[in-house]
Design goal:
The chain is an alpha/beta fold. It has eleven helices and seven strands.
């Protein structure tokens, strides 16, 4: 291969990668005491751990924000879109973390339908003046059954791109892939929720939303 075209190709690739990094969305940090709505199902509620060990409580301790736990065990994205407006009105959050879809997948709902329900929730959050943040959720797969390693459903990355929403990738999937971090196959234990909160806080800090001072 001619070395000149190869070098030019390499330069194009590096330039594109640098541009992608430069263009990554950065947000203004939320102040201490800001209201954050944790909107989700039993994972947000904290099923599998004791009082105060759920991820919203852990996140509040890490950030200094007032994190409202609006997790409902057994909830689906399909049902949750009917309660999002009330949750937003009652809490008036600056940011809403959306963790939903797992129960839809367990009920074998089509991923495309789950995606549209999540889209409705994301748009309701934005219309209320809050910043929507999606947490990727794994769905059952043959790969997971064979390897024991879970992966986020691709609908989350696609939806985040389409709606220009911040996505927290692989945090829940990684926690639920480790037996020592699970209370049961679909819920973290106390250590798992602690790690989930840390992963969420880290992602929000990298996006500029959390000002971590040393």
């Amino acid at each position: 291969m001619n070395p000149v075209p190869l070098a030019r190709f390499a330069l194009i690739v590096v330039t594109a990668l640098l541009a992608a990094c430069t263009d990554a969305r950065r947000y203004d940090p939320l102040p201490e005491g800001a209201v954050v709505l944790a909107f989700g199902d039993s994972v947000t509620h904290g099923t599998g751990a004791g009082t105060g060990e759920d991820y919203p409580s852990r996140l509040a301790a890490l950030t200094g924000w007032r994190v409202v736990n609006a997790g409902v065990p057994g909830d689906t994205a399909q049902r949750a879109k009917e309660r999002i407006d009330d949750a937003l009105r009652s809490s008036k959050p600056a940011l809403t973390i959306i963790e939903l879809g797992g129960n839809d997948f367990l009920r074998r709902r089509a991923a495309a339908d789950v995606k549209e329900d999540l889209r409705a929730i994301v748009r309701a959050v934005r219309e209320a003046g809050a910043l929507p943040v999606l947490v990727g959720v794994p769905e059952p797969s043959a790969f997971a059954a064979v390897t024991g390693r879970l992966a986020d459903s691709p609908i989350y990355a696609a939806l985040a791109a389409e709606e220009d929403a911040l996505l927290i990738e692989d945090a829940l999937s990684d926690v639920l892939s480790e037996g020592s971090l699970r209370a049961d196959p679909i819920h973290p234990n106390a250590a798992g929720y602690r790690l989930l909160a840390e992963r969420i806080a880290d992602a929000l800090a990298r996006a500029g939303l959390l000002d971590i001072r040393t």
